[in-house]
Amino acid sequence: MEANTRGTGRLPAAFLTPGSSSFLDFLAEHKPELIPGLRGLPEGVVVEAPHGTTIVAAVFDGGVVIAGDRRATMGNVIAQRDMEKVFPADEYSAVGIAGTAGLAVEMVRLFQLELEHYEKIEGTVLSLEGKANRLTTMIRGNLGMAMQGLAVVPMFAGYDLDLGRGRIFNYDVTGGRSEERGFAATGSGSVYARGSMKKLYREGLTAEQASTLVVQALYDAADDDSATGGPDLTRKIFPLVSLITEDGFRRLTDAEVAEIAVSITDERLVHPNGPQAPLL
Predict the structure, then answer these.
(1) pLDDT tens, residue by residue, 201-229
(2) What is the domain extent for residue 117?
(3) Which residues of 116-140 are buried (b: 16+ CB within 10 A; e: fewer)?
(4) Which of 5, 8, 17, 53 is catalytic?
(5) pTM of the full structure
(6) Quick check: is 34 in a domain?
(7) pLDDT computed for residue 45 by the predictor
(8) What is the CATH classification number for the domain harbouring 143?
(9) Using CA atoms, how far apart are residues 43 and 269, in angstroms rounded to an integer?
């Protein structure tokens, strides 16, 4: 598959041979060493790498919102305060990453290429269910690295053009996939974030209400999980919040998220534990 610099300038035969519409399959056949999960580590080697932490998502009336905190940790040290953990997969879907940061970002880039390659080859957009299945395959391919402590556990969310609604998919390190109803969380602070959303979520939320909900959940996760970063008002570092509707993917601006985060922080000065759900 090497470029022929002395020939006529034609592409190598591998690029001209009809085959699968999967870019991952193409890479596995011709350059398998470029797939993150196939590299492996020498036996007995322990790698201390930055880890991304908490991702949350919620369905609202007309789409889905997915958000992530900005902190990356390495052991008990804060490795990065402004890490990006939510990425557009294509026009109608997004991936939030938790786990080993470097491998996770590389997997997202490969997933983006996979969806773009499929669209170019087939001339149509892959269904949301198909996208979720493709991500399952990629996570399963990383199982060997996960067994060595370099796990990647993403969350996938998108707008289903066929069903006309937002959907959320969660994964485990083996590639096991489950569709979540209403809301979901993954990462080290997921237990606390899920508990927060469980009490606040309801059907029929607007996009603005759902955005506030996920920032509230990240605030609660940061309150109890040291690996999750809350809104940093002094450095002006706020969660990444993205909306996906029938109009496509849109990331909220820093100013929009700051307005939500400041209002939540101000309210927490009065009620430190946040909004209270009724007993009955």
Answers:
(1) 999 999 999 999 999 999 999 999 999 99
(2) 48-270
(3) ebbeeeeeebbebeebbebbbebbb
(4) 53
(5) 0.83
(6) no
(7) 47
(8) 3.60.20.10
(9) 51
